[in-house]
Amino acid sequence: MGLQAPPTQRHDVQILTTHFQFNGQLETVGPAENYINTPTRDSLALYDLYAAPLTPGIPLKGASRSDAVVLRSQIVFLYFTSAETRSTISTFPRRELLVVYTPVAVCRGYFHMPAEANLRDLLGAIPTSLIPITEAHVFPYFQLPAPFPAQAEMILAGRSQILFYHEA
């Protein structure tokens, strides 16, 4: 019997990037956490999406698209709307309450890290591009074009978009 590819799945997501807000379906192959954090993956495919610019007052308005590709390095926050999908994202046992600053919002929540990790080396201690934050509170710097969770059981933050952080 030949090898079979892992199943393709679509997950409802909300994504904030540095310039856009997306609501749509993220397509993954195999477990969502492994797929989105594959080191060689530069982008993620979204389907049945609505994209709206974050810059207020510009002529470009939001648009619905059947599909689009988002660069992973531009993702500030990714929220899986399904509790079932969020429950599959693994976390380290140690957690620290931190406040992180990004280009579009401040986020307060618990960051999970290895027991031996130094808080100052948090970003180096967590090996994924999208970092899980639990009991998260998101405070955008401006009104977003569409609803985005102000409080979330879990949200993923883009490592490359964390400007600085400190203990809460």
Helices and strands in order, then pairings?
Layout: E1 8-17, E2 20-29, H1 32-36, E3 43-53, E4 63-71, E5 75-80, H2 83-86, E6 94-101, E7 105-113, H3 122-125, E8 130-140, E9 151-158, E10 164-167
Antiparallel strand pairs: 1-2, 1-5, 2-3, 3-4, 5-9, 6-7, 6-10, 7-8, 8-9
Provide a concise account of the structure shown.
This protein is mainly β. The protein has helices at 32-36, 83-86, 122-125; strands spanning 8-17, 20-29, 43-53, 63-71, 75-80, 94-101, 105-113, 130-140, 151-158, 164-167. The chain contains 3 helices and 10 strands, in the order E-E-H-E-E-E-H-E-E-H-E-E-E.
What can you tell me about this protein's structure?
The chain folds into 2 domains: 8-81, SH3 type barrels, CATH 2.30.30.100; 85-167, SH3 type barrels. Helix content is 8%, strand content 51%. It has 3 helices and 10 strands; from the N terminus they run ββαβββαββαβββ. It has a 10-stranded antiparallel β-sheet. A hairpin with a 3-residue loop joins strand 6 (94-101) and strand 7 (105-113). The longest helix has 5 residues, at 32-36. It is globular. The termini are far apart. The model has no long low-confidence stretch (mean pLDDT 93).
Shape: globular
- Mean pLDDT across residues: 93
Cα separation of the termini? 54 Å
Count of the domains: 2
Order of helices and strands: EEHEEEHEEHEEE
Strand order of the largest sheet: 4-3-2-1-5-9-8-7-6-10
Name the helicity range. under 10%
Low-confidence stretches: none
What is the count of DSSP helices, taking H or I runs of 4+ residues? 3
CATH architecture of the largest domain: Roll
Rg from alpha-carbon coordinates? 16 Å
CATH overall fold name of the largest domain:
SH3 type barrels
How many DSSP-defined strands?
A: 10
Give the structural class: mainly beta
**CATH hierarchy class name of the largest domain:** Mainly Beta
Main beta sheet = 10 strands, antiparallel
Strand content: over 45%
